[in-house]
Specification:
- By secondary structure, the protein is α/β, with parallel strands linked by helices.
- It folds into 2 domains: 84 residues, 3-Layer(aba) Sandwich (Rossmann fold); 124 residues, 3-Layer(aba) Sandwich (Rossmann fold), CATH 3.40.50.
- 40% of the residues lie in helices and 16% in strands.
- The protein has 10 helices and 11 strands.
- The strands form 3 sheets. The chain has a 6-stranded parallel β-sheet with strand order 1-11-8-7-5-6. It has a 3-stranded parallel β-sheet with strand order 3-2-4, with helices on both faces. A two-stranded antiparallel ribbon has the order 9-10.
- Strand 2, helix 2 and strand 3 form a beta-alpha-beta unit.
- Helix 1 crosses helix 2, helix 2 packs across helix 10 and helix 6 packs across helix 7.
- The radius of gyration is 19 Å and the shape is globular.
- Bound molecules: NADPH dihydro-nicotinamide-adenine-dinucleotide phosphate (NDP).
- The site of NADPH dihydro-nicotinamide-adenine-dinucleotide phosphate has 26 residues, from helix 10.
- NADPH dihydro-nicotinamide-adenine-dinucleotide phosphate binds next to helix 10.
Length: 278
């Protein structure tokens, strides 16, 4: 079985971005916006900062206290969206419930929305137009492309239909001419549907839910899930050993899709800056 590590794909994308940023008059700038100090967010933030540095992208963090007033936050967020020196903004979600995502969306400049959070960019994706893609969903495509796994005409099955991963990923796979089935908690005969896949992508957020019984011989399996075991270690949606016995290829967790996400983010910040004519 081929192990589809994310790092080589991430390094390739980062090098391509770096090559372009090194020729620019100023580095493109990403602003990470965070409310509170959630451990997962901090860990992603650290990874993103390192990746931006390697890609020649300036990265700043604007962190708000967990109890920040909504109006104070909206004002600051709007100002960042107007700031000509900020090319891309990554807002960590979910936000505390007192914040209105509708209001935040209205304050978001779609041309700085480098993680494809707002309806304009999601609409562009669904219509097959140019625009920013949700970084995790795009990272799946990047891994498949890096390892030269053909998508045209292939039966792809996605387990998960969230707005952040499953749905946009289905659209990206369609754009690559795969034939796509999207599964969720109400799907009947999930194992049968999964077994139809030539490319199986798991984004359910259920630790090791997918074992070898879901996988036909020779299937390429991409595990998007990041789940924390009771002992604090990370695991994917796939039971690694069991799936490896059947799959032709499988991404590890950690070290798979997650490692490519921030390099896609870097590329989209570069694109945002280039679009502005920097
Ligand atoms: P959500 O919880 O928002 O969505 C999970 C989806 O999986 C839902 O559509 C749900 O169905 C479906 N699902 C859950 N359990 C089952 C089941 N037993 N059978 C079939 N379908 C099921 O999660 P996200 O999409 O945000 O994230 C998914 C996973 O990806 C998580 O582990 C997350 O940590 C990880 N992730 C990884 C990233 C990375 O960089 N690698 C980035 C973002 C997320 P229904 O709609 O019916 O409820």
């Amino acid at each position: 079985m081929q192990l589809l590590k994310g790092l080589p794909a991430a390094k390739k994308i980062t090098a391509e971005v770096k090559e372009k940023t090194s020729k620019m008059s100023r580095p493109p700038k990403l602003m990470i916006v965070r409310i509170g100090a959630d451990e997962d967010a901090l860990s992603y933030e650290n990874g993103a900062k390192k990746r931006m540095e390697k890609a020649g992208i300036a990265c700043e963090v604007r962190a708000f206290d967990a109890d920040v007033e909504t109006e104070e936050f909206y004002e600051a967020y709007a100002a960042l969206n107007r700031d000509p020196e900020t090319d891309g903004i990554l807002l960590f979600r979910p936000l505390p419930k007192r914040f209105s995502m509708e209001k935040i969306e209205a304050l978001t400049d779609p041309e700085k929305d480098v993680d494809c959070m707002c309806t304009v960019n999601m609409g562009r994706l669904f219509l097959g137009q140019e625009g920013f893609k949700p970084c995790t969903a795009q990272a799946v495509i990047e891994i498949l492309k890096y390892y030269e796994i053909p998508l045209t005409g292939k039966r792809a099955v996605v387990i998960g239909r969230s707005a952040v991963v499953g749905k946009p990923l289905a659209m990206l796979l369609l754009s690559e001419n795969a034939t796509v089935t999207v599964c969720h908690t109400r799907t009947k005969d999930l194992v049968e549907r999964a077994k139809e896949a030539e490319i199986l992508i798991t984004a359910a957020g259920q630790a090791e839910m997918v074992d070898g019984s879901f996988v036909s011989e020779g299937t390429v399996v991409i595990d998007v899930g990041i789940n924390v075991r009771p002992d604090g270690t990370l695991t994917g949606d796939c039971a690694f050993d069991s799936v490896s016995e059947k799959a032709a290829a499988l991404t590890p967790v950690p070290g798979g899709v997650g490692s490519v996400t921030t390099s896609v983010l870097a590329r989209q910040v570069l694109e945002a800056a280039l679009k502005k004519g920097e």
